[in-house]
Amino acid sequence: MWLLFVVVYAAVALIALLGVIKYTRIEVGHRRKYALRVRTSMSRFLLLTKVLKLLLTKPASALAIIALVIIILIPATAASYSYVWVTSKVRGPVEGYAIHIEFSEVVKRDEAINAIMKHIGSFVQSYSSYLRVVLEEPLNLSAAQDLIYVVVGVDEKLLKELIGRTDVSGCVVCRDTIQGVLAEEKGVKLLCVSPSKLASATLIGDEPLLPVQAYVGVKPVLPPPKNVLILKRGEALQLLNVTYDGISDIVIILSSYIPPNTISSIISELSGIKSLRYYLTNGTVLMYSTIPLPTERSIIVALIASLLASIIIVSIYTSLLPEIKLLYDRLAIQGMPPWGITLIIAILTSTTILGVGVVETGIIYGIYGGVSAFTSLITSAIVWVSAFSYLNKKSKPKSLLTDVYTPVTKRYDLVVKDAEIDVNELVDTICELIRSNEFFIVDEVSARSQDSIAYIHARLHYTETWGSGIDLNVAISKNSEVLVSISVTPWGIEEISEAVVQNMISLAVSRVVGGIRSWVYKA
Amino acid sequence: MGIQGIVSIAIKQLARGSGLQIALLTSLVITLLTLVVGEAPPRILLLSLPVFSVLSAIFTDVHNIRSSFYALILVGATIRHVIAYSATIALMYVAIYVLPLAAIRFFTLPEYCLLALSLFTAVVALLITYYLHARSVFTLVTV
Predict the structure, then answer these.
(1) At what angle do helices B62-74 and B43-60 cross, to 10 degrees?
(2) What is the pTM of this model?
(3) Which of B19, B30, B62 is nearest residue A308 as measured by Cβ atoms?
(4) What residues in A contact B29, CB-CB < 8 Å?
(5) How confident is the model over A235-250, as pLDDT tens digits?
(6) Which domain holds residue B34?
C-alpha cells in the first residue's frame, strides 16, 4: 500500500512541477507581442478544437449528450421487424398450395420438419426433402462426361418423374454411352440421361432442380448438366459423408390456404433459410425476403423520439447561444470570418449529436441488431438536422440573414487635434504598430519624413493566406492639427473570397487607427 | 411583499418564458411516445424523459429566472421569498409532467383516454400561457 502512495505522490509532484515550469515559461521572458503572435498563428483546426473543448465543458452540453443517448435507446429497444412478401408469377404447373424452403446449408431434416409441423402441421398434406450441394472439390466419375461439381439428392418420386424408374441410384450425363444405358460406378448404378433433361427438370413450379448459382437480371444461371450428379438422397448423403439425415430443400404441399403471416412464424423458428416461396393456386408465388425491415410502429416510435429529442436538445442549446455568440464576437475581432459562427455550431452539433449518435448506433447494432440500429440512426440524423438548422438560424443577426454587410473602408482620415505631437514620434509609433500586427508578416516598411510631413509605406503579407496581402500607405501632415490619411490596396496571386479581403483591410486599418488613438491618449 | 405575491410573480414569469411551452410540448410528446412504444423499452428510460424535459425547459428560461432572482433581491426579497419562487416553478413543472408519468405508470388504461386528456391539458395550458404572455403583466416595478 505504501508503494501506491509513493507512486501517487510522485505523479502528483511531477504534474505540479510540469505546471510550474509551463507557468514560468509563459510569464517570464516572453513579451505580450510574442504571445499574441503564437495564438494567431494557431491552425484553424486547433482553434476549432479549443472552441469545441470550451463548449463541451459546459453542463448544457453534457445534459444534451445524456438526453440524446437515452432517447436514442428508446426506439432501439422498441424496434421490431418484419419480412416482406414479394409477389411474382409462376410459369410451371402447381397443384394446390405449396411451400418451397431452401436452406443456405445442409440442415437436419427432423429439426426442420418439426419446426414446420409446429406452426402449420394441420395444413400439411405431404412434403418432400431434397439435397442440393455444390462441391468444393470436384468428383471424378469415369462414366460422367465431365467432373462433377454439383450433387443433387432427390426422393424416389422425383427420380421416377425424371428417368421413369427407381431401381437405379440416380442419373448422370455420360461420356460415350448412349442415353438410357446403365453405367456402373463404384458399385452405384447410374442411368445415362441427356443434358436437356436435367436442365429442364423442376422441383416445383418453375423452380429448377439444379441449384441456382447466380442471376443475370431475373434469369437464373444453372450449373452445366454435365457437371451434375443426381442421386437418391440417402445415397447422396453417403457419397458426401454426411452422417446425419440432412436436407437443403423441402417442398410442402398444403391442404388449404394459409395466411402469409402464419408462414412468417416459420422464418423465426428456422435458422439458415435462404429463400421461401409460397405457391398459390392462381399461378402466383409469394417470395419471402429474408431481409428484416423495421415495422411501421418502429418508424413511428423513431419519429416521435426524434421530435422529443429535437425539442429537448434545441432548448438546451438555445441556452448556450449567448455564450456561442460572445465567443464568436471575440474570435471575429481576431479575424474569424462571418460564417465562423455557422462553423462553430456545425462542429458542436456534429460532435455532440451526430458523433454520439453514430457511436451509439454502432453499439446498438452490436447488441440489438440492424433494425434497432437503423431506427437509432434515423433519430440521430433528424435530431442533428433540426438542431443545426434551428441554432444556425437563431445565431445569425438579421443583417446577416439578409446578406447585408457593412462595407469596409479602404481609406480612413484621422484628425488629431493635439498640435504638440511630434511627427517623427508618430511615424515611429505607426511603424511599430505595423510591425507588431500579428495578422500580417511584414515584407517591407519604409518611412520618409520632412519637417511636418511624413509618408509611410508598408507591404504586408496576410498570415491566413499564402499569396495575398495589402499595401498600406499612411500620409501625415501637421498644421494646427495632425491629419493622418490611411489608404489600403489589397493584392494577391490567389483566388480568395471577398470576406477574406474585407478582413485583411479592416485588420490593417483598425490596428493603425486604434494604435494612434491610444498613443495620443497616453501621450 | 408576501409569499402570495411571489407565487403570482413566479407563475406569470414562467408563463412569459418559452420554457413552459417547451415543457408542455415535451409532456405531450412523451405521453404519445409512451402510448406508442408499449412495454418494449425499459421503464427507467421512459421515466427519465420528464427529468430531461424539465431540465431543458429550465435551461431555456435560465436567464429569465436568474434575472428574476436578482430583481427580487434588489426589491428586498429575502431567502424565504426566493425559496417560494423556486418552489412555485418546480411545482408547475411537476404538474405538467404528471400526465406522462401517469401514462408511463398506467398505460394499461384505454389509450384514447390518456391521449384525449393529454391533448386537452396541453391546449388549455397553452391558451393560459398565451393569455398571460399577451397581457405581459409581470413587471417588478409593480411589486
Answers:
(1) 50
(2) 0.56
(3) B30
(4) 304, 307-308, 311
(5) 888 888 888 888 999 9
(6) 3-142
